[in-house]
Amino acid sequence: MGKATILIVDDDIANIEIMNAVLEEDYEVCFATSGWQALDVARTAQPDLILLDVLMPGIDGFEVCRQLKADPLLADMPVIFTTGLGDTEDEMRGLALGAIDYVTKPVQPAILRARVSNHVELKRLRDRLATMAVTDALTGLSNRRHLERSLESETARLGRIGDWLSVIMLDIDFFKQFNDTYGHPAGDRCIMMVAAALGRAVKRATDLPARYGGEEFACILPGTDAAGAELVAQEIRLQIQSLNIPHEGSQVSPYITVSIGIASARCRPDLPGERWIAEADRQLYRSKQRGRDRISG
Ligand code: GH3
Ligand code: MG
Ligand code: MG
Ligand code: MG
To answer: To test the ligand 1 pocket, which listed residue (193, 215, 240, 256) has its Cβ within 8 A of the most ligand atoms?
Structure first.
C-alpha cells in the first residue's frame, strides 16, 4: 500500500513548515492556507487525514469541519484540529463538530507524529472494512447486499428521469455436476474465472457486476435499453465461452456455459428494484427450461 495522504491547513506558512517537517518522510503531504482552499484540496486530493487550523481569515476551521462533515463524499475524512485555542470550550466545540482529535500549538513533534499515525491506521482499517462489506470474498465482485442497495438507489434515480435500466442474471449450467466431477476447489476456481469474464464483458463505469450467490451472478446496467443489454449478454457468453473450461458432466456442451435472463424497462418511481431481479430471474428460468446455454429477455 502507498503512503497515506495528509492535508495540512494553516494560514501561517511557518506552522505548515513545522508540521510538514514532522510528517513528510512518512506521508504524502498537501497544503491549504485558507478554509475555502482546504475544501477544494480535500475534494481533489482525497486525503486520509486533515490537520486543520481554527483561526484563519475567511471561513475558520470550525466552519470548514462543519462543511466537510455535511458532504457525504468528504465526511469520512478524519479531522484533527491543530490550534492555538486551548480553551476547554473550543476543544469541546471542535470535537462536537466531528473532529477525532484536538492538538494545541505549539505541537510536540513526537506527539503529532504518534497521533497522526494512530488515526491514519484507524482510517485505513475503516476503509478496508467498508470495502469488505460490499465485496464478495471469492471473486472480488460486488456482493449481493451491495447489488441490492445500488439497485434501489439506481431505480429511484432513473425513475425520476424515466431513463432505461437493464438487469442481467446469469447462472452456470449443471454446476453441481461440475463440483461432483472436478471437486469443490476446482468449482471455486471456475466461479472466479466466470466472475473475471463477467467483469471483462461489462465495460461502462456505471455498470455493476456482482455475485448474487453460489454460481449465480447479476449485473446492473443503468441507462441501457433492451437492445444494449442483449449485446452485453452476448459479450458475457462470448467471454465465458473463450475461457474453454472443460465440463464433462454438462448435458449441453463439453465446456462451461451459462444461462442468462434479462429484464429491461424504463424506470418508474413506483417500480422497486426487486421487480427487476424477479423479472431477470424469471427470464433466466426460461433459458434453463429452453435448454440452457442461452439468453432470454
Ligand atoms: P442448473 O443448470 O439448473 O443451474 O444446474 P446446477 O447444477 O448448476 O444448479 P443447482 O442450483 O442445483 O446447483 C448449484 C450448485 O453450485 C450447488 C452447489 O454445490 C454449487 N455451488 C454453489 N456455491 C458454490 C461455491 O461457492 N463454490 C463451489 N465450488 N460450488 C458452489
Ligand atoms: Mg491560523
Ligand atoms: Mg443456481
Ligand atoms: Mg446452475
So the answer is: 215
